[in-house]
Structures are given as structure tokens and as C-alpha cells.
Design a protein that fits this description.
Length: 96
């Protein structure tokens, strides 16, 4: 992961690195404009410390997504579905 020493010492375009790291989560979430995404991708392509930070965060997200899946028991799913259907039939619920 990139730390302040990497950004200040060896990474090209220090302020670009700070901005790239601060924008990393938006980049990973697909929340950037096409122009901004291309700009950050261009920076990542030329900056090893930022690319390593990106790779770390992307891999961490994949591990979390894979390991943190809650299994919901079928009985609970059925009770929730019945409650939703019951509430959907209640005219007072539509005003919420």
C-alpha cells in the first residue's frame, strides 16, 4: 500500500498521487466520469506505488466480497417474503 513517504519521495507527480489515492474508492466503485476515469487510469499506468495501492484495494474488496456473504436460512426468507406480501396488500403501507 502507498504511504506518505512513497508519495513524497519516489512517486512521479506527487500531487497527482495524492489525488489518485483519494479518488481510488470512487474509481473502484465506478463513480467517476469517463474523462476522470481515463485520467486516473493513465496515472496508475505510470505510477507503480499508486498501482500497487489500487491492486491491494481491488484484491481486498474481492476477498471481502467472497468471504463476507451471509447465508440466509430458507425459513427466514419465506417469512420475509410473506411479510412483504402482507404489507403490500395493506393500503395503509403504500402511504409510507
Amino acid at each position: 500500500m502507498v504511504n506518505d513517504d512513497d508519495i513524497a519521495a519516489g512517486a512521479p507527480g506527487g500531487t497527482d498521487c495524492v489525488e489518485a489515492i483519494h479518488t481510488l474508492y470512487h474509481f473502484l466503485d465506478g463513480e467517476l466520469t469517463e474523462y476522470r476515469r481515463v485520467e486516473i487510469q493513465h496515472h496508475l499506468d505510470g505510477c507503480l506505488p499508486c498501482l500497487e495501492a489500487f491492486d491491494f484495494e481491488a484484491e481486498l474488496r474481492m476477498v471481502i466480497a467472497r468471504k463476507c456473504r451471509d447465508e440466509v436460512p430458507d425459513g427466514l426468507r419465506e417469512r420475509i417474503a410473506k411479510a412483504i406480501m402482507h404489507d403490500a396488500g395493506d393500503p395503509g403501507m403504500s402511504q409510507l
